[in-house]
Structure formats: C-alpha cells, structure tokens
Specification:
Low-confidence stretches: 368-378
Number of strands: 19
Number of helices: 9
Number of domains: 2
Strand order of the largest sheet: 13-12-15-10-17-18
Mean pLDDT: 86
Shape: elongated
C-alpha cells in the first residue's frame, strides 16, 4: 500500500497487513503529527456501520478493491472478511496461505483505508491533478492541396504523450483527403504491435471527419498509419512541439506490415486529418512521487482529521473527552494562519509541493499560474 499506519497502541483494533506493512512510499501518515491524532481517536470519529458482505463466489471475477473501491470486491468467507488485492481474481480461495489474491481484513481497517483514499483525492484536487482536459486539437490542411503519391509503403501520424504515466490521448475523429469513396484501412500501432485496424471513408477529396474514438496511454509512440497511396496534401508543415500535453509529427515507413515497418519521421502532411483530445490523469504520477510529496500528504491528513474532529458529522463520541479541545481551539487549528497551526502547516506544505511539481511536472499540463497563498487569521 502507498500510505500506511504505524501501530500506536491507542486502540484494541488489529489493523490488517496491508495497512501495517511498510508502505511503498515509506510514509506512515500518523507518524510525526499532532498528538491528538492517533488511531483510537480517529476511529472514534469515523462512521461506524455494521456492513455485511456477500459470500465468496467461485464463479465470480473480483477486482482489486484498492483500485475499484467497490464493496463487491470484499467478501465474507468462513466467518472472516477478505479483500481482493488483484484484478481478474477468479476461483482463488480467500483463506489460502500466502494468497496473492486476498488479504484478511476487518471493518475498522476498511474505514481507515477509505479515509486514506479521501486524503489522496484531496491531494489530487489541491495540486490540480484530477482527471481533466488539457488540450483539444484539429489537424488538417485544405489550403492549396494537390494530389500526390505518398512515398514508401506506409504513411502515419505519430502521437507521443508528454508524460507517458499521466497523459491519455483520445483520437475523437479522423478524415482522409482522397479522391473517390473507397474505404481505406487505418492501422493503430504501438511499439511494434498492431493494436487495432479501422476503416476511413474518403469524401472525394473533402475534409469530412468521422468518429473513431481511439484511446491510448502508456509508454512509447503511437502511430496511426495507412498504406501509401494518392492523397490530397497541402504545403503546410507540422511543428511537433507546439501542442500541450503531447508531441505530434508525421512519418513514412518501409516494410511488409505497418507494425514492423522502418519509419522515417518528417513534418509534412499525408492527407490524414485528426481531432485529438488530451487528458491529464495523474494517479501514476502521484504514486510514483508520493515519497517526495510526503510532508504535504501528511499535512493534508492532519488537516482532514481535524476537520473530522471539529465537525464530528457522524456524532461518534464525546469530543471533549476524546481529544480535550473546545470548539474555539479546534477552529483555531483550522483557521489561524498567524501561529504554527494545522492549517498554516497545510498551506506551507501545499506551496512547497507546488514548487516541487513545477520543477518535475510538465508546466503545460499543470498550470498553477495565479495561485497564491493568502495569510489570514480568525
């Protein structure tokens, strides 16, 4: 697990192995925080509901609960609760020793995990890393077009994310400027593998877009290739670096198949038009760099825990007995920016996290221009 809890012996609850094992980020969120934040206090303020889970079914395929966040990926078996930790989990007994597919868990562990997911969600939101549209771009050229025979065996558009771990490209529509209306095969290629083949129908030389809905993300370049043939092209050139979130250029290939052809890159048109959307989805980025953002993640955790203490929306306990703070003291921790409070630490670490991201993250994908931290007090 990316985040975890260190045992603090403030509760009789035995946390499951995923929570208490050394987290992949090396970050225990309850270590080095405000002394009022401990497992016992947090569990006393989080909602407590008696859930029931479906009995394990040997014919049902389960997914990883950490990814799906669905209750259906948690089962009961022989009077115990088990959490699926793998996708495509089919017909694996939950109580197998050293299971690669299940871990035994309990309701309190699940409540803490759900809260940690809320902390991660706030980190994504604060750093503007939630899934969002980065760019939408049309590529086509219908100025001074002439009919030309494309060289070599294949012609392609090459698209490459500017951040293969956190950028998704979707080709919404495509067109081909070619005489006649005979359909043309389009090959989707990545790293020497043919991913898909679709057809494009020309409109006798006109730029007419048709829906394609091709989506890809990950490592390497992605090619949208056709067999070389006569198409209408103009004299415009492509600037591969002008696009936010991705690089785009054209190529021609020699070979027996589009996925194994030897391609030469260029910047002139090939008759293909594209409508491309680019999305930021930074889950992998955050997971890869969570240790570098550890102080900020912990500050978010502290801030959210104190919000739980202050609002006590679940009416879970006598707050004064549990944490010995009155409303004004709790409010000061959440509002006072003049002293070393929870909220001041939160905003300070948020500013530092943004500065780190500006050095490591493509600024065209994540623009924090105009973001200012204003200091105030209650």
């Amino acid at each position: 697990m990316i985040l975890g809890f260190s045992e603090d012996f403030t509760s009789n609850v035995v946390l499951d192995s995923e929570l208490t094992s050394i987290p992949s980020s090396g970050l225990y969120v309850n270590s080095g925080v405000h002394p009022s934040i401990n497992i016992g206090n947090l569990l006393d303020f989080l909602p407590k509901v008696d859930f029931t889970f479906e009995t394990w079914d040997s014919e049902k395929t389960y997914n990883s609960f950490a990814i799906s966040r669905k209750r259906t990926d948690i089962v009961s078996f022989n009077g115990k609760i088990y959490q699926s930790i793998q996708g495509t989990n089919l017909n694996h007994l939950p109580d197998e020793e050293d299971s690669e597919y299940w871990i035994e868990t309990n309701l309190d562990s699940l409540r803490l995990k759900t809260f940690l997911e809320q902390v991660k969600d706030k980190v994504y939101s604060d750093l503007s890393l939630t899934k969002r549209l980065v760019n939408n771009q049309y590529f086509y050229d219908n100025r001074n077009v002439t009919e030309k025979l494309l060289p070599n065996d294949y012609a392609a558009w090459v698209l490459e994310p500017k951040g293969s771990d956190y950028v998704t490209i979707r080709v919404n529509q495509m067109s081909i400027q070619k005489s006649g209306t005979t359909p043309v095969n389009l090959y989707v290629v990545n790293q020497g593998e043919l991913l898909d083949t679709i057809t494009l129908t020309p409109s006798n030389g006109k730029v007419v877009f048709e829906d394609t809905d091709i989506t890809f993300s990950g490592k390497g370049t992605f090619m949208l290739a056709i067999d070389s043939q006569e198409v209408y092209v103009g004299n415009a050139t492509v600037n591969p670096l002008k696009f936010n979130g991705f690089v785009a250029y054209t190529a021609n290939g020699i070979g027996d198949a589009p996925e194994t052809a030897d391609y030469t890159y260029n910047t002139y048109g090939n008759g293909l038009g594209l409508n491309v959307s680019v999305y930021l989805d930074a889950n992998v980025y955050i997971n890869n760099n969570l240790d570098a953002l550890g102080n900020y993640v912990r500050a978010v955790f502290e801030y959210m825990v104190f919000q739980v203490f202050y609002h006590n929306s679940n009416n879970r306990s006598n707050r004064n007995q549990r944490i010995q703070m009155d409303d004004q003291t709790l409010l000061a921790e959440l509002k006072d920016m003049q002293h070393e409070t929870i909220v001041r630490k939160y905003h300070r670490e948020k500013k530092r996290a943004i500065e780190v991201m500006e050095r490591t993250f493509d600024t065209k994908l994540n623009d924090h221009e105009g973001l200012r931290i204003k200091v105030g007090s209650v």
